[in-house]
Amino acid sequence: MKNYEEWNKYKFEIEKQNPFSSKYTTSDGDVFYIEPIFYTMFSSFKDHHPNEVERILKEMERVVKVNHKVIFTGNFEHPLTIGIDDFIILEIFDITDPLNIFVEDKSRGSDYGD
């Protein structure tokens, strides 16, 4: 787990049960986790859309304020964070798509057949 600079205004906590997730608590008592894969994807948006980073962070803040307990994950079906039954789970695209901020996936499958 890492204390990411983008969320350093919040209280950072270490949880032994979630060694890979960074836990933050807002001044209102809302809790959110940032998983490493989410941060890697967020970093890609930072690289491709540096002028949109603040909008993304503001939307994440809004979502946390509305839902109070959020996990920002890289994979909705298999989050790394445990003990989260009452948390909503969001991927980066749940934040960026409604803002119309996209990173095009230009990867493609192999051109080689069997």
Feature tags:
16% strand, globular, 114 residues, single chain, alpha/beta, 29% helix, five-stranded mixed beta sheet
Description of the structure:
The chain has three helices and five strands; from the N terminus they run E-E-E-H-H-E-E-H. The chain has 114 residues and is of the alpha/beta class. The chain has a five-stranded mixed β-sheet. The protein is globular. It starts with 10 loop residues before the first strand and ends in an 18-residue tail after the last helix. The mean pLDDT is 91.
Helices and strands in order:
Layout: E1 11-13, E2 22-25, E3 31-34, H1 36-48, H2 53-67, E4 69-72, E5 88-90, H3 92-96
Parallel strand pairs: 3-4, 4-5
Antiparallel strand pairs: 1-2, 2-3
Helix content: 25-40%
Order of helix and strand elements from N to C terminus: EEEHHEEH
* Number of E-state strands: 5
Query: What's the number of helices?
Result: 3
**Biggest sheet, strands in spatial order?**
1-2-3-4-5
Overall mean pLDDT stands at 91
The end-to-end span amounts to 42 Å
Short description:
With 114 residues, this protein is an alpha/beta fold. The chain contains three helices and five strands.
